[in-house]
Amino acid sequence: MLKRKVALLVVLLLVSGSLAIAYGNGTGDKMVEIKAVLSGKVLAKGLVQVGQQVESGAVLVNIDSFAGPAATARAPMDGQVEKVLVSPGEQVQTDTVVIILKRNN
After folding, report:
1. In tens digits, what is the pLDDT along the chain, a chain of 105 residues?
2. Are 59 and 74 in contact (CB under 8 A)?
3. CATH of the domain at 52
4. How confident is the model at residue 105, as a pLDDT?
5. Which residues 6+ apart lie within 8 Å of 79 measured at CB?
6. How is residue 43 annotated by DSSP?
7. Nearest to residue 91, comparing CAs of 43, 35, 49?
8. Type and span of the H or E element at 19
9. Residue span of the structural domain in which 8 resides
10. Cβ atoms 60, 100 nearer than 8 A
């Protein structure tokens, strides 16, 4: 029972931390750093382009994982891709900033 409560607490802290990162520092920041949640080699298929409009939940970067292609970064809100910081074939690690997204108003 205690392990379950600890696991739930960890999940809640991770989610709240992700939301805090995704929604800036509360001062109206429009640029958001999107970090990889999985490690692997970046795939060309599904990699967004600078200037592309994306909706919340859209896949921004796919990697080649041991189980096949997997989304390592998704848009936390609607916005426009300002910078793509990775290239196809590049190896990325968890928590690496891969995309800069400009939040839509």
Report:
1. 656 654 444 444 444 444 444 444 444 569 999 999 999 999 999 899 999 999 999 999 999 988 889 999 999 999 999 999 999 999 999 999 999 999 987
2. yes
3. 2.40.50.100
4. 76
5. 32, 53, 54, 101, 102, 103, 104
6. P
7. 43
8. helix 2-22
9. 2-103
10. no
Q: Kind and range of the H or E element at 101?
A: strand 97-103
Number of domains, the chain: 1
Q: How many CB atoms lie within 10 A of CB 17?
A: 10
C-beta separation of 37 from 65 below 8 A: no
Tokens, residue 16: 């709240």
49: which residues sit within 8 A by CB, 6+ positions away? 81, 84
| pLDDT the model gives residue 66 | 84
d(CA 95, CA 49): 20
Amino acid found at 69: P
Give the angle subtended at the CA of 63 by the CAs of 101 and 7, to the nearest 5°: 80
